[in-house]
Write a structure and sequence with these properties.
The structure is a homodimer of 289-residue chains. Chain A has 289 residues and is of the alpha/beta class. In chain A, strands 1, 2, 3, 4, 5, 6, 7 and 8 form an 8-stranded mixed sheet that branches. Chain A is globular, with a radius of gyration of 18 Å. Chains A and B meet through strand 6, helix 8, strand 7 and strand 8 of A and strand 6, helix 8, strand 7 and strand 8 of B.
Chain lengths: 289, 289
């Protein structure tokens, strides 16, 4: 669900390449950022990966593996798969490789440096395709899905996990905080993505030619009874993600430093005693006919 | 989650009485409206009532039973309880009584005509209290909860179900539709209620002196794969509820006929092929210490 993850892992369609890559709100390849993505993935692993377990020997493609934050959880749930992990960024792939070597040293993983729109594998090469927080950054997600459909054998499945920033609401309610979240959505749209993609998964998969499309919400709700989730999700994942676009939002003239900082301060109250926070991820499974 | 249900079932605090009761967006006591509430309750019964089953012989209070739309589901899940169903409206109580007579003729139910803030029962009279779509209409929901806490024996539980209209999002996204939903929230606030109450359940129950407060989201998500939910919830429950405040919104000067109707038309697209709709209810259980 981060804007950073996927912007660096998947290429937009060529006509949008300039917009998407010259934008400076991608917070880059820092160690801090990679650690944040790992923390986020660990906090959400059970919620997002539950129900996804591929049989040993299955040929699985993870499209847009990024720094491997989800890859290690996929491998933990499906030991024995033959995984191909693909990413557009060589640097991210190297980090993913190191992460997998440390956490799943026995896993059978091939690393592919390339664009999911132009995969070099013959049609029908995979039994299953998995992608998480990738579509939200593609200018034409249906085209990306169609490319992945071709990589699947008939009867093979695709599993897609996406967030939807419009699902975020919180107590105390705050128009300033809400506007700050909207800046993130607007910046992502300017970069050719869609921070509200989760709600579109069903029509997108249908349009891309998949069958038996089943989409389920996976909701994160954190209040004082769940301090680990307040810290791991509300504060360190969601607020941190919104906060990370500060420079970008200011550069784009969407807000002022005072207004942005006030929005973040009010958003942070959702992670203080008496606060609550809600966010919905969507997980879809569909079949190549 | 309807503005109609609870406005007629629970009194606001005296100082707000004028605002709450002179407002004409309560669509009254029509048969159509009672049927709509029943349909809504039936569509959502499994989602909302799952996990609530009281032992036979338990003394249970349903506060704000309205026309009995939830009462029959409560009785179906907990046969053998000794239920007291309370409501501020004699007319609603009569409808609830008829509904229970038809659907649960053997149930042990006492009907109480009165205000939940001033219950005549001795402290500790009940093992369990249940209320659904009631707090959202109280000017001081913590005070209402405190009154209900006193009616419970120590160790007794309260179960509270509320919606949160800020949880509604949909595809296709539409600012006009979103503004129309916002009118509903604003009108409810003017009447002394809070259409965004669901997110506040944890802090409210805590403030009212309950212990072991556990709140869980109960999410409705409808897309083309769930036509019954699209019809029963998106169209007949949510869109119908928003549409029902048209006259009120116009009278309050919040919108124009054209703008309101456009918002409803765009909201309705969420129930057409390719559309999706998301809404979160919250269900809380807590204990009187």
């Amino acid at each position: 669900m981060t804007t950073e993850t996927s912007r660096r892992t998947e290429a937009p369609a060529p006509e949008h390449r300039h917009d998407a890559f010259d934008h400076d709100y991608v917070h880059g390849y820092s160690d801090t950022e990679a650690r944040r993505l790992g923390d986020q993935a660990d906090t959400l692993a059970e919620l997002l990966h539950a129900g996804t377990a591929y049989p040993a020997g299955s040929r699985v493609l993870e499209a847009g593996c990024g720094v491997g934050a989800q890859t290690v959880h996929l491998l933990a749930a499906s030991p024995g798969v033959r995984l191909t992990a693909a990413d557009l960024s060589a640097e991210s792939l190297a980090q993913a490789r190191a992460r997998v070597a440390a956490q799943a040293p026995a896993a059978d993983v091939s690393w592919h440096h390339g664009d999911l729109h132009r995969l070099p594998f013959p049609d029908g090469s995979f039994d299953h395709v998995f992608l998480c927080f990738v579509l939200e950054h593609l200018p034409d997600p249906a085209a990306g899905l169609a490319a992945l459909r071709r990589a699947l054998r008939p009867g093979g499945t695709i599993t897609v996990i996406e967030g939807d920033h419009g699902s975020a609401f919180f107590h105390p309610e705050s128009p300033a905080a809400r506007r700050t979240v909207d800046h993130l959505v607007r910046l992502q749209a300017r970069a050719g993505g869609d921070g509200l993609l989760g709600r579109r998964l069903h029509p997108l998969l249908t349009a891309a030619g998949f069958a038996e499309v089943a989409v389920r919400p996976r909701t994160v709700y954190a209040d004082d009874a769940r301090p680990a989730l307040v810290e791991g999700f509300t504060r360190r994942t969601f607020v941190a993600m919104v906060e990370s676009v500060r420079a970008e939002a200011l550069a784009a003239g969407l807000t002022t430093p005072a207004a942005f900082d006030r929005g973040i301060a009010e958003l942070r109250r959702a992670a203080e005693p008496g606060g609550t926070f809600h966010y919905t991820f969507f997980k879809a499974v569909a079949v190549r006919p």
